[in-house]
Amino acid sequence: MQTLTNTRLTRRLFLDRDIESLRQQLLRFQPFLSRRKAPISLEEFDEATNRLIGRVFGETSELLEAYEYAKLGEAASLVNAPEEAQESGAHNIERETLQQRKQVLESCLSTLDSIRTTRMVAGRVADYMSTEIRSAHVDASLKDVGRLLKKWQVGSLLVDDGSRYVGIITERDLSRKAAARGLDLSSTTVKTCMSKPILTIEGSESMPAAVLLMKEKAIRHLAVTVDGTILGILSVADILRYYAELVPTLRDLAGLTSEGEEAAGEE
Q1: Rounded CA gap, 109 and 21, in Å?
Q2: What is the pLDDT of residues 184-243, one digit of tens each?
Q3: pTM of the entire structure?
Q4: Helix H segments across the chain?
């Protein structure tokens, strides 16, 4: 049976790492805004920021270009200005360019936060499925199945005939079908109580789509396919984990929106 490497954790770690890097860069920028002594020069800070934005968004990104404009704002504003105006306006222009730098960094952070939220709201099934597929042979006894479910601490097992998956059996099947009918668990085979055909969903489908399918079919487990091949299992526990991650993110997003509206009202 095939397995699929789940890249969700890797993608999430990279995104979280980039968000944290930008937050730290904003913190390092505070001494320049408050006119305190900074551990590095503004030029060194700009070089580090250019590298960071370029790495995260690409060397041709608009955000990197915006940061370049923020740095050049002071020089551009002083071109052809009278000598007296240059001296008196230099400090104001310097503050303005610092604020522009800050705004670009905040835009970078906001962009990544938005990407993270979007990924979670429209999370793919493949991002949350379990890639460790547990199975039992079609001729295994129900007693063996119960033992395997307990051993692996899972709620379902795919059923195979040695070459392909032919069904699925769950804890509910054991309790509702086997126990209710008084079947002998030692002599009754899996094929007597398994569900078939296997209900599947493509890994590229969204989590909300998976939730709807589970509700419609009144099931707690879905086999996940990639190009028609079963490569994972999605359970109710995975659905709950999806919502557990989603709700705090939506709450944070709502807070940011509220803060933005309040700030706009104060202007």
Answers
A1: 9
A2: 889 999 998 999 999 999 998 988 899 999 999 999 999 999 988 999 999 999 999 888
A3: 0.55
A4: 8-33, 42-57, 62-78, 83-121, 125-128, 142-152, 171-173, 207-217, 236-266
CATH topology classification for 126-242: CBS-domain (3.10.580)
DSSP letters for 139-193:
TSBHHHHHHHHHHHT-SEEEEE-SSSEEEEEEHHHIIIIIITTT--TTT-BGGGT
Domain limits, CATH 3.10.580.10, in the chain:
126-242
Mean pLDDT of 154-173: 94
Measured CA angle at 139 (ends 136, 140), to 5 deg = 50
Helix (H, G, I), strand (E, B) or coil at 116: helix
Mean pLDDT of all residues in the chain? 82
Inter-residue long-range contacts of 19-28, CB under 8 Å, 24+ positions, other chains counted: 19/109, 19/112, 19/113, 19/116, 21/52, 21/56, 22/52, 22/56, 22/105, 22/108, 22/109, 22/112, 23/109, 25/49, 25/52, 25/105, 26/102, 26/105, 26/106, 26/109
User: Token pair 């040695």 is at which residue?
Assistant: 162
